Amino acid sequence: RNEADNWFLRELRGRYDMVLQYLARHPGCTNADIEATMVELSGPGEVRQVGGYLKVLSERYRMIERRLPIFSPARARSGRYYIRDNFLRAWLSALQRPASAVAFRPIDVLIDQADKRLADVEGYALEDLAGQLYEERSRLGIGDFALSERIRGYWDRSDVEIDLVAVNEDEQRIRFGTCKRNPDRLIGTADALKKSADRFLAVHPKFKGWTREYVAIAPDIGADARAALQERDVLPQSLVDLTAGL
What we know:
52% of the residues lie in helices and 16% in strands. With 246 residues, it is α/β, with parallel strands linked by helices. The chain folds into 2 domains: 2-93, Winged helix-like DNA-binding domain superfamily/Winged helix DNA-binding domain (Arc Repressor Mutant, subunit A, Orthogonal Bundle); 125-243, Trna Endonuclease, Chain: A, domain 1, CATH 3.40.1350. The strands form 2 sheets. It has a 5-stranded mixed sheet. The longest helix is centred in the middle third of the chain and has 34 residues, at 107-140. Residues 91-180 form the DUF234 domain. This is ATP-binding protein. GO terms for molecular function: ATP binding. Keywords: ATP-binding, Nucleotide-binding.
């Protein structure tokens, strides 16, 4: 704990630390979100500096990244910011505060707080892990989906949210995925995933004639949940499934 805190105090003082703390607790936030928070904390003069803070954290330290929806141009204004390293994200959002309170709070209370916050962190990390596993399986020529390009998510201003979009140009297949840390939540998101896919296809008519597939991903999926998803024409995939053969 002391080593992590000392590193931040030495290298990332003041506003940089504030930006990192905000990104850790609000993964996927926009430039406007960050600006609004800086104004609230430090006044309107800070808005002009936000771009500089983000550039330093991204280009100099490579601690954050700006992601775009799949098929978006590089200059699209729909970018979202994330901390690149899962450990750093977990430390800042879930562990730093409980660890700093060990001298004056009950340990079991702090552990419970950290566990609850880590559940949120792990949910976002699962999306990254699932995408990486899809890419690795495609690279090795195993699994049931060969990728034509890097797998990414999709979102827009009309509140469409799709965790993963995978494209197989050769076979004209497109797969839409939802990721949940809690497998019990997968069934309830199946219909929403299909509706979001419909809205995606309305904006990208190129894919309307392609084979459309749906996948629901969780660390572990029980037999009942698998059967329920398959009844809805959604492919269930656990991390055990995605790591098989690697």
